Amino acid sequence: RGTFKPLARHTDRLDPQTLAELIRTADKQAERMERLAADLLDLARTESGRLELNIQDVPLRDAVIRGLSFVEGGDAFHVDIGDALVVRADPERLEQIIVNLASNALRYGEAPLEVRGIRFGDTVELAFADQGPGVPVEEVELLFEPFRLETDSGSVGLGLAIVKALTEAQGGSVGYEANVPRGARFRVRLASG
């Protein structure tokens, strides 16, 4: 609304560059609100057992590259995933998981940023690692809870809760560990295809 007020009241007085920038800002905020509404709906559907999934074999490297393409700054990640690695997942939900984990690493972590895929028997682990400050020990227990306390005003605390809900809905697991020697490492395990 803060962006639309000057547009509505002073359109005739705004130069084309300022007008274009205000429109871009409004569009970005509308996109953020759309994602937030979709995340809330997905979380509610998951909690009520009504989330529809289309589980299939998904080439993991392709899914990660596609997911990172939707994240501003996604090209900063080093991707270490073999072409033959396949997971059993819903492609759209896997993409949401990737986008949320990448966004989280970009927001709170520091370079170098890495996405790695590793097979463990009949499962595949997808791990996002960074070299940032990591998560304080007292906050680890609440990481995957919705609406946890956020110090970043740009976040409402749904991203990791959505990652957990979508991963578990697909029969997988999610976790966090400190990245040695520094940083954070979030991992998702799904059945291999």
Which SSEs are present, and which pair or pack?
Blueprint: H1 4-10, H2 16-47, E1 56-59, H3 60-69, E2 77-80, E3 86-89, H4 91-108, E4 113-120, E5 123-129, H5 159-169, E6 173-178, E7 184-191
Parallel strand pairs: 2-4
Antiparallel strand pairs: 1-3, 4-5, 5-7, 6-7
Helix pairs in contact: 2-5, 3-4, 4-5
How does this structure look, described?
With about 190 residues, the chain is α+β, with helices and mostly antiparallel strands. The protein is built from 5 helices and 7 strands, in the order ααβαββαββαββ. Strands 2-4-5-7-6 form a 5-stranded mixed β-sheet. The longest helix has about 30 residues. It is globular and about 65 Å long. The model has no long low-confidence stretch (mean pLDDT about 85).
Task: Describe, in short, the structure shown.
The chain is 40% helix and 21% strand.
List keywords for this structure.
193 residues; alpha+beta; 5-stranded mixed beta sheet; two-stranded antiparallel ribbon; 5 helices; 40% helix; globular
Give, in spatial order, the strands making up the sheet with the most strands: 2-4-5-7-6
* CA(first)-CA(last) distance: 46 Å
**Main sheet characteristics:** 5 strands, mixed
Structural class: alpha+beta
Nearest-angstrom radius of gyration? 18 Å
The number of helical segments is 5
Gross morphology: globular
Name the average pLDDT.
86
- Strand tally is 7
What level of helicity do the residues show?
40-55%
Which H/E pattern describes the elements? Answer: HHEHEEHEEHEE
Low-confidence stretches: none
Strand content: 15-25%
